[in-house]
Design goal:
The chain is α+β, with helices and mostly antiparallel strands and 506 residues long. The chain has helices spanning 17-27, 45-64, 78-97, 139-149, 195-215, 261-265, 290-299, 328-342, 356-366, 376-381, 401-427, 461-471; strands at residues 31-32, 42-43, 68-69, 75-77, 119-123, 126-134, 158-167, 182-192, 221-224, 236-243, 249-259, 269-271, 277-279, 281-288, 316-320, 347-349, 370-374, 383-388, 393-397, 428-430, 434-437, 440-443, 452-456, 474-479, 487-488, 495-496, 499-503. The strands form seven sheets. An eleven-stranded mixed beta sheet has the order 3-7-8-14-11-10-9-24-27-23-20, with helices on both faces. Strands 16-15-17-18-19 form a five-stranded mixed beta sheet, with helices on both faces. The longest helix has 27 residues, at 401-427. The model is unreliable at 1-8 and 101-111 (pLDDT under 50).
Length: 506
């Protein structure tokens, strides 16, 4: 007889990523997508716990950098949106015209977020005099309050954050965690005395993003977004993108330097040491449930999820074997669970009256990092069996189980980082040479689907447009990583160390 066939799990192979991803999210019981509003999923306990643990990583970074958690209202009055739209449209027009925003006086404003928000027009049966909307993000309600809180230089810096749900009427195809209408959202907003203070905050944000992504075992590309992809209200935008297994990039974090542009619009000023009134400088930093989507997409395999230990709801699942044969199996399992819990390890005892194979199947799908099996023979031998979700299986003594489990969790995290870095390396390649012809430009060799292309670039916006049209891909912006040696820009031929990337983005 040949090798036994694997149990059919009802999920496509991961090589068929566009089918695998939505299937595994539901089969692993992270969310239920059957709620009658498209793009608003019901979070199930396992998915919600994983997201809460990501929030915990974020709150830890906020605590270490002296940010304080606030909670602002969900409803925002329409007049504040109008105020934001006027600011954003003026800044956008000034950028396009290449002039200072103060030189522009605009009568017709862009609609801004108006097409993206959910409106509230009635309170009970009464029509509201001024409509309200559900927050798509929180600049306007926050900055309205900041202008009341800040009076003096002694009130600065102000470093705030909140973790809330935001709402955008996303009309494109929805995809759990990646493109939804009700978004689990983290946003930090800071206020500083000057541009230097805000710039230092951007550096701090960059470090926090990398710390969180490291805990999630995710490499990333960090870029300064091109002007046309910068939030119009920002001086510049930095973004971290994860390269998914299908070669698409997923933006998982952004942080914006606003200078004093928003402060001027919201009368956000302070009295300095000399008694002079100065406008504040601001930054924002945002992430969302896309972090969980990137974990699912990057680390899962044909058998299901693989949860990084840092956010696994159950880091160790303990499986009693042949508990019906000897009563001490359950007792010993619970003792092990208590020992591990006392060391801060998240445990779960699966004492269901089902076959071990069913339990293995379930916890493989859910991606528990460690399975620990203990039966009568193991107790007599003073050992247990450890299975790491990334593939290793071995016996270990019960006498130093805490140390063994900690090492096993480190082993899983290390293997996930290795695999994610391999995926990154396999999908990021140098751009083929560009040849100038009588008709324009062409690539020396055809581009491949599912590849992120790196290249030296120091050209202007029209040069970037040539690349985007030629490739059909999107420029991610100037990468924080540079080439170690000078290379020739792919369009201008000028020597540069600046690196950029072209990708297909979610």
């Amino acid at each position: 007889m040949g090798a036994p066939r694997k149990a059919k799990r009802g999920i496509p192979p991961k090589s068929e990523f566009n089918s695998w991803y939505p299937s595994i999210i539901e089969i692993a019981d992270l969310v239920d997508k059957r709620y009658p509003i498209k793009g608003m999923d019901v979070w199930k306990p396992y998915g919600l716990r994983a997201m809460s643990l990501i929030d915990g990583l974020t709150r830890n970074q906020m605590s270490m950098t002296n940010h304080h958690e606030h909670r602002f209202p969900l409803l925002v009055p329409e007049n504040l949106l109008d105020k934001e739209n006027k600011l954003v449209s003026r800044l956008k027009a000034a950028r396009e015209a290449g002039v200072d925003p103060s030189e522009l006086r605009m009568d017709d404003e862009d609609s801004g977020f108006k097409k993206e928000v959910y409106w509230v027009t009635h309170g009970g049966e009464n029509e509201l005099e001024s409509p309200m909307f559900l927050r798509p993000t929180s600049e306007t309600p926050m900055y309205t309050m900041f202008s009341l809180w800040i009076r003096s230089h002694t009130d600065l810096p102000l470093k705030t954050f909140q973790i809330v749900n935001t709402f955008r009427y996303e009309t494109k195809q929805t995809r759990s965690f990646i493109r939804v209408r009700e978004i689990h959202f983290f946003e930090a907003h800071t206020v500083h005395a000057d541009e230097e203070g805000a710039t230092e905050q951007i550096s701090e944000d960059a470090s926090m993003v990398q710390n969180i992504l490291s805990d999630l075992c995710l490499p990333s590309l960090v870029s300064k977004r091109p002007v046309w992809d910068t939030f119009p209200g920002a001086w510049y935008t930095m973004a971290a993108d994860v390269v998914m297994p299908n070669g698409r990039t997923l933006q998982v974090a952004t942080y914006h330097h606003y200078r004093d542009q928003w402060a001027r619009s919201f009368d956000l000023n302070y009295e300095d040491h000399n008694g002079e009134t100065q406008f504040c400088h601001q930054t924002t930093f945002g992430m969302s449930e896309r972090l969980l989507g990137s974990v699912v997409g990057m680390h899962g395999d044909d058998q299901g999820l693989i949860m990084p230990p840092s956010i696994a709801p159950h880091q160790v699942v303990l499986l009693p074997i042949a508990a019906h044969v000897r009563d001490d199996v359950i007792t010993e399992i619970e003792t092990l669970s208590d020992k591990l819990s006392n060391h801060g390890i998240r445990t779960f005892v699966d004492d269901r009256d089902v076959r071990p194979g069913v339990k293995h199947y379930d916890w493989e799908i859910k991606g528990a990092p460690i399975r620990l099996e203990l039966g009568p023979r193991d107790i007599d031998a003073g050992k247990c069996i450890i299975t790491e979700r990334t593939g290793k299986k071995y016996e270990t003594p019960l006498s130093n189980i805490e140390e063994s489990i900690i090492n096993a969790l480190d082993s899983v995290a290390s293997e996930l980082k290795i695999r994610a870095n391999e995926n990154f390396s396999n999908h990021v390649r140098p751009l083929p040479e560009i040849i100038k012809t009588d008709d324009g430009y062409e690539f020396e060799s055809p581009l491949e689907d599912g590849i992120v292309y790196s290249f030296p670039f120091c050209g202007n916006d029209s040069d970037a447009e040539i690349l985007e049209k030629l490739s059909g891909l999107t420029m991610l912006g100037e990468c924080v990583e540079e080439y170690s040696e000078i290379r020739n820009c792919v369009i201008t031929g000028t020597g540069t160390t600046k690196m950029q990337h072209l990708a297909r983005m979610y």
